[in-house]
Amino acid sequence: MRIRNQHYVVDWLHLGFILLMVVSITLYLLNARHVSTSLNNLLLLQPLAFCALALCALIVPQCFRRADRPADADVLLEDDPLAPSLPQGGKELARVVVLGLALGLMIFSLNVVGFDVAISLFCIAAMAICGERRPVALIVYPLAVTLAAVYGFRALMSYPMVTFIL
């Protein structure tokens, strides 16, 4: 493909996947709007769909690369701190698994112990699993996250939410 005397190579698989996501998001949004245009039903779905479409629009330019770009431009440096990496040791992999289990436990306990207790316990557990040991941070940050989440959801949605304290 040529644009202004520059030859570009298109990553068709990447572009096709992004277009598939755009079509899926658009059809889902149109279906939701067809079923109901009530504010309560579209309060979270519609802004999320627009954000996802905007992210897709930001990703599309990455599907086009200049053909005359050096071949080693895509190679990641070994000492690059921003390079993506998978968990290397058993300890890191166990941390990922335990975080996933903690998230699942939080989701299943939302209606049992209440949103406020479940969110704060998950936040404390996640911070402890990730290495936070300062008691002040383990108390203040989960409290702030819990207050923001509970009162934010109450302000957004008129549905009843099970809480234990708040």
TrEMBL record:
Transmembrane residue ranges: 12-30, 42-60, 96-129, 135-153
Official protein name in the record: Tripartite tricarboxylate transporter TctB family protein
Protein source organism: Ancylobacter aquaticus
Keywords attached to this entry: Membrane, Transmembrane, Transmembrane helix
